[in-house]
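To close the section, here is one more complete example, presented without commentary so you can practise reading it yourself. The ligand is pyridoxal-5'-phosphate.
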Amino acid sequence: MTKVRKSPLEMEKDEFRKVGYKLIDDISDFISTIDQKPVTPGEKPSQLQKLLENRTLPENGTSAELLLSKATELLLNHSLLNGHPKFFGYITSSAAPIGALADLLAASVNPNVGAHILSPIATEIEKQTMAWLAEFIGVSPNYGGILVSGGNMANFTGFLAGRTAMASEKLKTDGLNATEKLTIYCSKTTHTWIEKAAILFGSGLSSIRWIKTNTANQMDTAALEETIKADLSKGFKPIMIIGTAGDVSTGTVDDLKNLAAISKKLKLWFHIDGAYGIPAAVLPSCKTLFEGLEEADSIALDPHKWLYSPLEAGCTLVKNPKHLTDTYSSHPDYYNFGSHEGEYTQNFYEFGLQNSRGFKALKVWLMLQQIGKNGYIKLISEDIELAQLLFELANRHEDLEALTQNLSITTLRYVPKDFDVNQDNANDYLNKLNEELLNKLQLGGELFLSNAVIQDKYCLRACIVNFRTSEKDIHEIIDIISREGDKTHKSLSKTN
Ligand SMILES: *Cc1c(COP(=O)(O)O)cnc(C)c1O
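Output:
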């Protein structure tokens, strides 16, 4: 008789069920009371390290039940909660609970969505999700794409596809040295991914042309055309215009229609970074704002931002998906991933940088069905209305200055009502005051904002991608900001 293998990693059915039920109970309690917790405990790294007891690698095992109960305690009580109704920092959304269950299910089955044969139903679900996302933002169903880890990767994936498409064939065999000097065009508000891409993928920072912005903070299209013309006359090879649909600081959407027309006229690749803002294109009221979107050769968007997916989920959509396979496909001898009884089988490893891939699509696919397009129209427009309310309340408040409002981003700063804004170094003082105020607010745990600098003004920035936020929260945060602003001003003016 052969011995039955007993694996210490295996969990017996009853044990898994018991530990799993307990975990689900704890998570249910956590989600239903999340508004009663501080947004963040604001603990120092040393305090957190103490919790982990400075332990070395365990030699032997511990029961799953004990481990999960400890891990649950650590995570639920020592985390920053971006699912809290008063979390408005950076661009991280509250996560849809169905996404958590989807990740559990996906990890349990564990399909490798690199190849169809390894993930038959998961691959088809990801394909359907791509088609739905294209439909959601209003581009042709011929767009194809892939889910990636986030906005940076989504932009990289589109950027490389565009560069391969635009450069000479020699790029693949002989590298960038063999090609003309490729140049790319984007506005000064473009997210830092573009610098990372230029450095990592060998184009170099000098290949980026930073185009100035107009008074509306959009790329100045006249300056864009002039710069391209000058580059052409100097022997450079312009390849790509990058538009931003919802910039990180203020939510500004570039004039996509005009950028699309210039790209078309000059035969350049048109990439749109819509990591944050593009889901708003689903709103009938935003149709004009996003006009030109449907002309993009590639688009980056982040389901883990304004579609409320748990981290991580980014997405690249490409008008002609052939450019993805042209860039990313290779066929080693040991892969036997061809067709399935004559039918085309799509292998996602040929669509992007990753080889083995997890099943990120499940959560996005389920969320899109749980509330449908109309559910998203409701949530996204409510987020925008809340950001507008914040702007109006700040505008009316005697100690607050409302600065900008686009999509669901509002910027404001604290300016004490008795403060003489014409005195020497007034702006320096206000910058210091608002920076200190922000630091205080971030550690205080009552709410969470991030910052922006708008025309030399350091300000507080709220980005509302949070389906748990209500009007009451907006009224309350106005009170919190003015109360803490007053305290900070008093203590600062004393020390001055
Ligand atoms: C958030 C964001 C990114 C980066 O996305 P990650 O998911 O953080 O990698 C890029 N561009 C824009 C416009 C963004 O808002």
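Once you have examined the tokens, check your reading against these statements. Residues 361-396 form the longest helix (36 residues). Residues 91, 150-152, 155, 191, 193, 244, 248, 273, 275-276, 302, 314 surround pyridoxal-5'-phosphate (CB under 6 Å).
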